[in-house]
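Students often ask why inverse folding is considered easier than folding. One informal answer: many sequences map to the same fold, so there is more than one right answer. In these notes we will look at a single instance of the problem. The structure comes first.
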């Protein structure tokens, strides 16, 4: 992650959600006429299927991808794909049930999402970078998950958090706490790495990490992009704790 560019967070932001910034430098391609078709699963088709999105204020109505559910329903995606990512993911898009005159929802340009089908459910997975890899390095994680399914003929969208994000071991937590306690007062990208690690230590249920996380803003007097990144992490932590 390039800390204030590659990650802000949270959620696949919808019309009522918070901002996430996963890769500001991504290349957005609208309706690329079948490009990257090899990335489709057996539950997807290219855009030549006769299905468009409902008219909306966010994107064109021409479908990029159509997801076929096992119950016979199809859901169209209209918006932008990030062709530089492997696998390809999507930003600034709407989903719309084929044949209906309103969209399911809108996910905006500040986040990247992976979509997949499992039987009668479409999953929209919000992708963010967090320091959960070995040695507390960064890797792509699924943070939020929107489950889209039908009850009779009514479409349902349910938002969940991915509680399976890797937590820190006691050794990793101790190292993170020690780094904070010995840190100088200079604010830089390394300090933002540290606050991201404090965030993971906090969701690993360490009280001292949580205390240090909330002290961080006052200690370093954040502003600009650093303040935005910290506030998004804070919103993520509050959401995480509210879902216990």
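Output (designed amino acids):
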């Amino acid at each position: 992650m390039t800390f204030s560019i590659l990650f802000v967070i949270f959620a696949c932001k919808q019309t009522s959600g918070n901002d996430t910034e996963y890769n500001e430098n991504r290349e957005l391609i609208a309706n690329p006429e079948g490009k990257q078709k090899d990335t489709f699963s057996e539950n997807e088709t290219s855009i030549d299927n006769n299905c468009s999105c409902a008219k909306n204020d966010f994107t064109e109505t021409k479908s990029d991808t159509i997801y076929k559910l096992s119950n016979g329903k199809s859901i169209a995606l209209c918006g932008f794909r990030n062709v530089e990512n492997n696998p390809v993911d999507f930003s600034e898009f709407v989903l719309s049930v084929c044949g209906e005159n309103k969209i399911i929802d809108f996910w905006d340009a500040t986040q990247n999402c992976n979509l997949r089908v499992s039987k009668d459910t479409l999953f929209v997975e919000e992708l963010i970078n967090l320091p959960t890899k070995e040695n507390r390095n960064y890797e792509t994680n699924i943070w939020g998950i929107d489950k889209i399914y039908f009850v009779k003929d009514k479409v349902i969208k349910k938002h969940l958090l991915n509680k399976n994000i890797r937590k820190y071991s006691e050794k990793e937590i101790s190292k993170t706490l020690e780094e904070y306690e010995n840190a100088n007062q200079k604010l830089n990208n390394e300090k933002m790495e540290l606050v991201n690690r404090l965030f993971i230590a906090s969701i690993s249920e360490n009280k001292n990490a949580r205390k240090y996380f909330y002290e961080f803003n006052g200690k370093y007097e954040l502003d600009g992009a650093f303040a935005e990144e910290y506030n998004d992490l804070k919103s993520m932590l509050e959401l995480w704790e509210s879902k216990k």
